[in-house]
Write a structure and sequence with these properties.
Number of helices: 11
Structural class: mainly alpha
Order of helices and strands: HHHHHHHHHHH
Radius of gyration: 18 Å
Strand content: under 5%
Helix content: over 70%
Largest sheet: none
């Protein structure tokens, strides 16, 4: 019963949306602006860097706290069984928050927060893949999906314990699901692009005067 309580608490923690919580102090609902998503990217586009930073810190902390509680108090911490499930519950809570009509963000920041405690090295790989893809394409959604699948690839290559492998596969599929609209807009050539993040193209232009 105590382990179940940790999972329920993890979901409730995930349901505390950083953007919606901070938005209340500004008298706004982030879901009514920009893309309508309650995540860090939409917060940055519509409210600016400081607001988005606060959102990301809250969302990352939720995943980290869920992982900590499971690692510290669970009787099923062997091979990260319950910690993996707890982090996934927090991610699910972020995507479908009970406190906000089950309309939340896409779960990437909360996932990273959990990985900071469960598998810190994986965070470095995810961030590198995300930054590389973003600097090449300018598409946040695509970068996040590829980063999610890099987690699964890393799990397969390093032969992690079964619970972590299942967790990695679940995380990758969830990132694909929550970013399905981004991928659809990408195929329709209507996805928002962060032109300022196209660092390789800007470097090429500065050196050779023509885009890649």
């Amino acid at each position: 019963m105590f382990d179940i309580s940790i999972l329920v608490l993890s979901y409730l923690l995930g349901s505390i949306s950083g953007s919606l919580l901070l938005g209340r102090f500004r008298g706004i609902d982030i879901r009514q602006q920009g893309s309508g998503n309650a995540g860090g990217t939409n917060a940055f586009r519509t409210q600016g860097f400081k607001f988005a930073l606060g959102v990301v810190l809250i969302d990352v902390s939720k995943g980290a706290l869920a992982a900590y509680l499971a690692l510290r108090f669970s009787s099923l911490s062997y091979m990260y069984v319950l910690p993996c499930v707890a982090v996934m519950c927090a991610v699910v809570g972020h995507v479908w928050p009970i406190f906000h009509g089950f309309r939340g963000g896409k779960g990437a920041a909360t996932l990273v927060g959990g990985l900071l405690l469960l598998w810190p090295v994986a965070v470095l790989v995810l961030v590198l893949v995300w930054l590389l893809c973003l600097s090449l394409t300018g598409y946040v959604g695509l970068s996040t999906v590829l980063a999610g699948f890099s987690l699964l690839a890393l799990a397969l290559i390093t032969k992690v314990p079964a619970p972590m492998l299942v967790f990695s596969a679940s995380a990758a599929l969830l990132m694909l699901f929550t970013h399905r609209a981004n991928l659809q807009r990408l195929m329709q050539k209507s996805e928002y692009r962060f032109e300022k993040m196209l660092l390789w193209r800007r470097a090429w232009r500065s050196l050779f005067g023509n885009p890649v």
